[in-house]
Amino acid sequence: MKKILILPVLLLYFSFANTINLFAQEFDQNTYYRLTTKWQGEDMSLDVVNDGENNKLQLSKAGNYLAQYWKITPLENGYHRLTSKWLGEDMSVDILNDGINNKLEMAKTGKYTGQFWKITPLEDGYYRLTTLWQGDDNALDVVNDGIIINSNWLKQENTGDNIGS
Questions:
Q1: Which pLDDT does position 163 carry in this prediction?
Q2: Tens of pLDDT along 94-139?
Q3: Got the DSSP string for the chain?
Q4: Distances from the Cα of 68 to the Cαs of 25, 57, 158, in angstroms?
Q5: What is the Cα–Cα distance from 25 to 101, expressed in whole angstroms?
Q6: From residue 52, how far is each of 29, 55, 56, 66, 74 by CA, in Å?
Q7: Judging by DSSP bridges, how do beta strands 57-61 and 44-48 pair with one another?
Q8: pLDDT by residue (tens digit) across 83-104?
Q9: Cα dihedral across residues 161, 45, 114, 154: positive or negative
Q10: Mean pLDDT in residue range 54-64
Q11: Which residues are within 8 A (CB) of 100 and not within 5 positions of it... i.e. 6 or more apart?
């Protein structure tokens, strides 16, 4: 049976709550992780929107939903693939290549640099997520629209010390 652990990590600051050696970036292949943010806390988790298209990502109220459980699969050169328990390994977290290049989506798994995620530990037990495509200058972040209840959409944003831009 696969384990499910809270992995507080996401949007400039993510947190992975478990006992594995995260500084060595060793993620248990038999474990699914919940991704949360420092800004929104453990009550909100990375989720796939169940709208028939099933390719949009947002933060949602944490619950026992397959779309909130994430597998972290090692790739080459220290990068990882993020797939949900709900959609399986055929769909991965990706950056939409639309000229703006800051929107996240679930896309067919492939050897695309927007699907290669670097998970960098920070001093306070959280993690920064960046992609091979955009490098360390752009990190996963939460859209801060000034209304915390509606601040649940994700994007790639200039890397900084903020906790949700």
A1: 52
A2: 999 999 999 999 999 999 999 999 999 987 888 899 999 999 999 9
A3: --EEEEEEETTTTEE--SSS-GGGT---TTEEEEE-BTTTBTTEEEEE--SSS---EEEEE--S-GGG-EEEEE-GGG-EEEEETTT-TTEEEEE--SSS--BEEEEE--S-GGG-EEEEE-TTSEEEEEETTTEEEEEEEE---S-GGG--BEEEEE--S-S--
A4: 21, 10, 25
A5: 26
A6: 28, 9, 10, 15, 29
A7: antiparallel
A8: 999 999 999 999 999 999 999 9
A9: negative
A10: 94
A11: none
Of 40, 87, 83, 81, the closest CA to residue 60 belongs to: 40
Decide if pLDDT at 55 tops 80.
yes
How confident is the prediction for the chain on average, in pLDDT?
83
Instruction: Provide the whole-model pTM.
Output: 0.82
Contact yes or no for 44/61 (Cβ under 8 A): yes
- State residue 112's pLDDT score: 97
Write down the residue that tokens 């200039």 correspond to: 158
Q: Look-up: residue for tokens 């800004």?
A: 39
Report d(CA 146, CA 73) in Å as an integer: 34
* CA Rg value for the chain: 14
Instruction: Tokens 């099933």: give the residue.
Output: 54
What token pair was written down for 5? 């652990």
Backbone angles phi, psi at 42, to 5 degrees: -75, -5
